[in-house]
Design a protein that fits this description.
Elements: H1 7-22, H2 29-47, H3 52-64
Helix pairs in contact: 2-3
Protein name: Transposase
Organism: Thiorhodococcus mannitoliphagus
Length: 79
């Protein structure tokens, strides 16, 4: 059985739940998947001490050019 989410984990999800509600949710499975993936990448970048927008812009540019996307940035030492 899966562990229940901790209170801090639920607090971390709260702003994404509110954002999805403000945007009137997602209307299809692909939209839900995209929203979830973007939320995960943004949170991971922030937790690792990186600004997410430059990373996402680089990934989008590489994929549009038909190249492999860069992996998520490594954590900043000392965080």
């Amino acid at each position: 059985m899966a562990e229940p989410l901790s209170r801090s984990a639920l607090r971390g999800l709260r702003h994404w739940v509110i954002a999805r509600r403000i945007m009137m949710g997602t209307r299809c499975e692909a939209g839900s998947r995209t929203f979830t993936l973007l939320a995960s990448v943004i949170d991971t970048c922030r937790k690792r001490g990186h600004v997410p927008c430059p990373y996402l812009a680089g990934v989008i540019a590489e994929r549009r050019a038909g190249r492999e996307a860069a992996p998520l940035p490594a954590p900043v030492p000392g965080l």
